[in-house]
Design brief:
Elements lengths: L2 H18 L3 H4 L42 E3 L11 E5 L2 E5 L8 E7 L6 E7 L21 E5 L2 E8 L3 E7 L10 E5 L3 E8 L5 E7 L1 H4 L4 E7 L11 E5 L13 E5 L2 E8 L6 E7 L7 E6 L10 E7 L5 E8 L5 E10 L5 E3 L1 E2 L5 E2 L3 E3 L38 E2 L7 E4 L15 E5 L5 E10 L6 E7 L3 E8 L4 E8 L5 E3 L4 E2 L6 E9 L3 E7 L6 E8 L9 E7 L33 E10 L4 H5 L2
Antiparallel strand pairs: 1-24, 2-3, 3-4, 4-5, 6-7, 7-8, 8-9, 10-11, 11-12, 12-13, 14-15, 15-16, 16-17, 18-19, 19-20, 20-21, 22-23, 25-26, 26-38, 27-37, 28-34, 28-38, 29-30, 29-37, 30-31, 31-32, 31-33, 34-35, 35-36
Family: Belongs to the glycosyl hydrolase 43 family.
Keywords: Glycosidase, Hydrolase
GO molecular function: hydrolase activity
């Protein structure tokens, strides 16, 4: 069989499965309004294309809804860090921090706080645009706050190097307004607004010591009612240094209930902290405090920083994150109730008013029928835009990719770059979150190039990384598997394997098991997967979990456009001895990308 024919067979065998998991009812369009149509199924993300298989629980890497009226935590088993959430009508909306990744500020929707769908992003690029044209690990969008006021959705978010910004939209799917600075400055983080009953508006925020020299305190400002400016220099309303045992007080969320002002804020650090509640009859304090959620004897370390929401039926719930290293900050849902003494408690009350996380619990009661959904992971690249699960490492250039150059395939251009040798520095890595503790991801790709040093593949990326894929070595295409330790250069994990003449396609797979231990495998002849290299641990990035990505790059250049030492051969020249942006034929094609539970037959056998 010809190479073209083999690839068509692979597409026929896997395309429909991959397409149905991208995810008809799970990842499709949402209604334009926050209020559903009378005939709309609550929780449905869209419809299944005729001829596609209905997605099932078995297709998904993780399902929080147990199907018997209960749910299991985490409800979002991926790096949806620093969540904030609100309810508008029958829908709950959630936003999360994204740091240097683009698009930023994802907006998720749910009707029951358990089944979630990504419906859009509030940021199509980061500002300042030029600053974020290269990966700025650990910078960018930190913990946001989401509110609905005066008929609009508002997201206040911090960039610790540039200040506090606000974006608004009448439709949570977008379009969102251009980011507007509310307060420029360094070290201002975790903002949250409150519009009071008397028309006054306020904003509370925390501090990043790495930028400002101080932390462990919360500052409150008067804010213009239109949310565009702060009206005073601010006042410290809670100083963690005055509270025994408090460190890293941050992430405040400001509410008002029955005449009390409440600030819900975490302390103690990302990995092992707790959730506190502060209350006062005056927004300016003084505030009294209580720890309302902590790890206790559960396996859920650092259960803190999140959102209090109330269902239409009056039930209170609390969403928070748990830092899980390479998996990032996953999101848990805790029942919340008000004790007789007037304080809230989240999770299982130990009798003293301090809660501990629940692992399994009865779902929130909501009206209408809901469906099992999860944020999309798989992609068959049949749309006109990239799926909402994908992110770049910096502000994106449309010249990096195409879904029209090869219909029903993703084309990534092999662009020469002075940082092509290190995927941590390469902006054009297209990645997504790890979707579960254990899962398998598979893709089918080919490399079309005559440029020595051009390469493409599948990468597990963090402060360390490893990738498997194809590279053009002058007179041949080779299958490679390479790794890079922290602050180190790449090296071969296995000896490169030449592909047979005329063959430039391969299927690639990574299997991830508990502990984020990864194993690469490849299939070069359609006879099955062969493991490549030794198992290796995924590692977290800067304030984010590891990501799983696709990439293509040309050879490394010397920073002025010339080919770096060690790269020779058939390299396109632009007439000034510099490397051209990439030949028209220098491209990697990805036929599909499929994620599922570990051991999924559809991933291994191509059915």
């Amino acid at each position: 069989m010809s190479e073209h024919g083999r690839r068509q067979v692979l597409r026929t065998g896997l395309g429909a499965v991959a397409g149905s998991t991208v995810l008809g009812a799970i990842g499709g369009a949402t209604p334009a309004s926050a209020t559903p149509r009378p005939d709309e199924t609550l929780g449905a993300g869209g419809t299944v294309t005729p001829g596609e298989a209905e997605p099932t629980r078995a297709d998904l890497p993780w399902v929080a809804d147990l199907g018997d009226g209960r749910y299991q935590n985490p409800v979002l088993n991926a790096d949806w860090s620093d969540p904030d959430a609100i309810r508008v009508g029958p829908y709950f909306y959630l936003v999360a921090s994204t740091f240097n990744r683009v698009p930023g500020l994802p907006v998720l929707r749910s009707v029951d706080l358990v089944n979630w769908t990504v419906i859009g992003h509030a940021l199509t690029e980061l500002v300042p645009k030029d600053h974020f044209s290269e990966p700025r690990h650990g910078e960018g969008v930190w913990a946001p706050a989401l509110r609905h006021h005066d008929g609009k959705f508002w997201i206040f978010y911090p960039d610790p190097d540039f200040g506090i910004f606000v974006v608004t939209a009448t439709d949570p799917r977008g379009p969102w307004s251009t980011p507007r600075p509310v307060k420029p400055g360094k070290g201002l983080i975790d903002p949250c607004p409150l519009w009071d009953d008397d028309g006054q508006a306020y904003l509370v925020h925390a501090w990043a010591k790495s930028r400002s020299g101080v932390n462990n305190r919360l500052t409150l400002h008067r804010m213009s009612p239109d949310g565009t400016a702060l009206l005073d220099a601010g006042r410290i309303v809670i100083n963690g240094d005055d509270l025994p045992g408090y460190t890293t007080l941050e992430g405040p969320k400001l509410y008002k209930r029955d005449g009390w002002y409440w600030i819900l804020a975490p302390a103690g650090g990302v990995t092992n902290g707790w959730q506190s509640a502060f209350r006062s009859r005056s927004v300016w304090g003084p505030y009294e405090d209580r720890i309302v959620l902590a790890q206790g004897d559960t396996p859920v370390n650092g259960p803190h920083q999140g959102a209090w929401v109330t269902t239409e039926g009056g039930e209170d719930w609390f969403l928070h994150f748990q830092d899980r290293g390479a998996y990032g900050r996953v999101v848990h849902l805790q029942p919340m109730r008000w004790r007789a003494d007037g304080w809230p408690v989240m999770g299982a009350d130990d009798g003293s008013g301090r809660g501990a996380p629940v692992l399994v619990h009865t779902k929130p009661r909501v009206n209408g029928r809901t469906e099992v959904t999860a944020p999309a992971t798989s992609d068959d690249f049949t749309g006109t835009e990239l799926g909402k699960q994908w992110m770049w490492q910096a502000n994106a250039d449309p010249a990096w990719w195409s879904l029209r150059r090869f219909p029903s395939r993703l084309a990534l251009i092999c662009r020469p770059s002075p940082v092509a040798h290190d995927l941590r520095l390469l902006p054009n890595v297209l990645a997504q979150r790890l979707p579960a503790e254990s899962f398998t991801a598979t893709t089918s790709m080919s490399l079309s190039t005559t440029t020595t040093g051009s390469r493409a593949g599948l990468v597990v990326l963090g402060e360390t990384y490893a990738w498997v894929g194809l590279r053009h070595d002058g007179d041949r295409t080779v299958l490679v598997c390479r790794t890079a330790a922290r602050d180190a250069t790449e090296e071969d994990a296995v000896t490169p394997v030449p592909l047979r003449r005329g063959r430039s396609a391969v299927r690639l797979r990574v299997s991830v098991r508990p502990g984020a231990v990864c194993q690469f495998a490849a299939d070069v002849d359609g006879r099955g997967f062969t493991p490549l290299g030794a198992p290796f641990p995924a590692t977290a990035g800067k304030w984010i979990g590891a990501t799983l990505g696709l990439f293509a790059s040309g050879p490394s250049t010397d920073g002025t456009g010339g080919v770096a030492a060690g790269h020779t051969g058939d390299v396109a020249v632009d007439g000034t001895d510099g490397v051209a942006p990439g030949r028209p034929g220098d491209v990697a094609e990805f036929d599909w990308f499929r994620m599922g539970p570990s051991g999924s037959d559809s991933l291994v056998d191509g059915r």
